[in-house]
Structure formats: C-alpha cells, structure tokens
Amino acid sequence: MGDDGRLHAIDDDDASSAHQLSYIDIYPLSNYYFGSKEPLLFKDETLSDRVLRMKSNYAAHGLRTCVEAVMLVELFKHPHLLLFQIRNSIFKLPGGRIRPNESDIDGLTRKLTKKLSANGASDASHWEVSECLGMWWRPDFETLLFPYLSTNVKGAKECTKLFLVKLPESRKFVVPKNLKLIAVPLCQIHENHKTYGPIISGIPQLLSKFSFNIIGT
C-alpha cells in the first residue's frame, strides 16, 4: 500500500525475486543399490527406563542433541523421502544422537556411515550434508518435542536437528538386517501425524522453499 492509501501492483522483477527457489536435484530410486549387513543392537527398555537413561545422560553431559537426515529420491515422477521402518510400524529418519563435543555434521556423517554404508567402505564419509531445515526441542524428559523453545523454558533436555543431505547420482546403501530403508512419497507423509509422528509429517512443509529438479526420468 502506497502513501496515498491505495494498493500498488508488485513489479515483475520483485515478484520474480520473491518466487525464486533453491533447487534440489533428485535422482530416480532405480539409480541406487541396496545391500544388507549385521543387525544393529537396540535397547529393549520401557518408557520409564528411557526417561531414567535420559536423566542420567543429562546429568553427565547436558543437552542431548540428535541429528537426522532428510534424503530425497524420485519414484513415479514424485519426490520420496527415505525412512527407516522398524517392526513394520515405527518410522525414523536416518541419524541419531551425537557425542559430547562432536559437531552436528561430523555426528550425522558418522551415524549415516554406521547405518547406511558397508563396514570399512571407502566412500563411507562421502555424505553431502547441507543446510539445517528445522529444530525440535524437548523442554522436559517426559514431554513431546516441539518446533520451538518457549522463553519460559530453562534448560531444555533434548534438541533434534533436521539436515538436508543431498544424494549423488548413484550410491549403494548397506542397511542393517533389522531395519528396512523405504521410500515414502511426500504427499503421503504431509500432516500424517498418526503414522509418521510430528517431525516426519512436517518435512514436506519444511521443503516448501525448494524446487525439486528431478533428473533422469
């Protein structure tokens, strides 16, 4: 609105600039190869056991930081998100908790190598970790994660960071036998809290600032 109180049209150059998006190159799922390796060991614990473990770790190391990878492929001309499926009902992003004094990128690279590369593979560290897409916070041990941290919260207990990881044109994923690596369409994930939880179901919205450049279809 101008000084005279009337609405003015936006110049074409301004509109073009406002709608410029960053591109993500996405390659077909058929470009990638999949193998298996020894299963990962998971802690068999109750919710109360997990809370006790988190309290103990917090007392020793402070804020728990988790880093997770958002990796996209193309299938049926649509962008798909790579997810781990555990026991047919639990879905997780590749990643995990970083060590004390470990950087986010180093921690995520280590976790991706552990869960998706062959043991001792020469290309194990070749993960292109890009920008941080969002952060989620757990204000207390027994509360849910939130995509913000209220000003009245002192000493958050956990922070989960989502990073865009750009895949090369081709790669071999070597997956532990007790995990499934699946490709799920973004349209199925969008706002599907019941199946995928609040973090994963919010990823399509986080990716809305990008334009997908689907290659090789």
Commentary on this structure:
The protein is α/β, with parallel strands linked by helices and 217 residues long. The chain has a single domain (22-214), classed as Nucleoside Triphosphate Pyrophosphohydrolase. The protein has 6 helices and 12 strands. It has helices spanning 12-18, 47-61, 104-116, 186-189, 193-201, 203-206, and strands at residues 22-26, 33-37, 64-70, 72-75, 78-86, 90-92, 95-97, 128-138, 158-166, 172-176, 180-185, 210-214. Strands 7-3-9-8 form a 4-stranded mixed sheet. A hairpin with a 3-residue loop joins β5 (78-86) and β6 (90-92). The longest helix has 15 residues, at 47-61. The chain is globular and about 50 Å long. The N and C termini lie far apart (45 Å).
What's the CATH architecture? Alpha-Beta Complex
Total count of strands: 12
The CATH top-level class label:
Alpha Beta
Strand order of the largest sheet: 7-3-9-8
**How is the quaternary structure best described?**
single chain
Number of helices: 6
The domain tally reads 1
Mean pLDDT: 87
Strand content: 25-35%
Radius of gyration: 20 Å
- N- to C-terminal distance: 45 Å
- The dominant shape is globular
What's the helical proportion of residues?
A: 10-25%
CATH topology: Nucleoside Triphosphate Pyrophosphohydrolase
**Major beta-sheet overview:** 4 strands, mixed
- The helix/strand series, from N terminus to C terminus, equals HEEHEEEEEHEEEEHHHE
| CATH homologous superfamily heading | Nucleoside Triphosphate Pyrophosphohydrolase
Give me the secondary-structure category: alpha/beta
Low-confidence stretches: 1-10
